[in-house]
Amino acid sequence: xxxxxxxxxxxGLSAALSLHAAGFEDVTVHEAAQELRPLGVGINxxxxxxxxxxxxxxxxxxxxxxxxxxELAYFNRYxxxxxxxxxxLDAGYAWPQYSVHRGRLQMLLLEAVVExxxxxxxxxxxxxTGPGDEDLLIGADGINxxxxxxxxxxxxPPPWNGLVLWRGMTYGEPFLTGRSMIMAGDGTQKxxxxxxxxxxxxxxxxxxxxxxxxxxxGRGDWNRPADLKEILRHFADWRFDWLDxxxxxxxxxxxxxxxxxxxxxxxxxxxxxVTLLGDAAHAMYPIxxxxxxxxxxxxxxxxxxxAHGDPxxxxxxxRPATTALQLSNRRMGPEVVMKLAHERxxxxxxxxxxxxxxxxxAAIAAxxxxxxxxxxxxxxxxxxxxVTR
Length: 389
Fold this sequence. Notes:
Blueprint: E1 3-6, H1 10-21, E2 27-31, E3 42-45, H2 47-55, H3 59-65, E4 67-68, E5 71-75, E6 81-86, E7 98-101, H4 102-117, E8 122-124, E9 136-139, H5 146-151, E10 160-172, E11 180-185, E12 190-197, E13 202-211, E14 224-225, H6 228-235, H7 245-250, E15 255-261, E16 274-276, H8 279-282, H9 291-307, H10 312-330, H11 336-344, H12 358-372, H13 376-381
Parallel strand pairs: 1-2, 1-9, 2-8, 5-11, 9-16
Antiparallel strand pairs: 3-7, 4-7, 5-6, 10-13, 10-15, 11-12, 12-13, 14-15
GO molecular function: FAD binding; monooxygenase activity
InterPro entries: FAD-bd, FAD-dep_Monooxygenase_BioMet, FAD/NAD-bd_sf
Domain FAD-binding: 269-308
């Protein structure tokens, strides 16, 4: 079976590794860029994705480049705690959660593909726009996928919700546990921070989010430069006892602007010898740390389905699940606790229990884990998608 993968990002490279592990030898990744370079800023890999990379034999390499997340914590815009929960091994998962530089993860996957499938398995400067004579074309070419456009011509640019994300990285002091991921905001304006490198110095990945005046340029382009002074203007008074937000923003060498866009859920992903994967299939708002993780899971389920002679099982398993997640992220997913706290106590609060009771907060967190497929008990007990040969 000859398989062509369009796109050499995290999803496409994970698909190549998964297919090879499942016994498929004739697999080629085609990347439109002339060179694969470690671009981007930080992302998170949730335990369900780390499980899949572990079962692909990459656990040690991943541990070398990632920071194992200890907790996720939400605060209002004044830095007062709303909700916190342990993450990864500290939450009872059999696998950690990692914060990692996206480019370093991509290079890790690329290195593994070249080692296992050979140096000709990845071909740069090669843009795939539609099917050819391969047995299967996998469109893993991102939110502006040419393969998706072949299946759904005339779809147009991804819809924008009016918010902009500014992203950057700054060396700074550790905060909270030293391995905490924090989100502070009011449901409209938000600041996120987490370490992606620790040791001698802590490299903090940060995201600042708010409504953008005017039309959004560069939809789907993660690498559009942003003006640090413009970002600081909106977060100048966000100084907490435990985190200096304007200090972190000002300390970055550069920042990047990304309009918050996603894609509409599709009625199908597969037509003839073409199927979609990752953002090409289900681009979603970057809420809940799920984009890269879901692409990795797609790759594993697709390889498992093909190896068992049931290609339809891939879409049957993944499309309803990711559609539910896309829609949940449009409703703010677990981050809705910040919106609720602001609506009920816009000037702040002394006791969160009087504003958003613990049972309500816990239910929101648990519901999202079920929707996204990383409920601890279900994940730990689920059969492996590895293929025994």
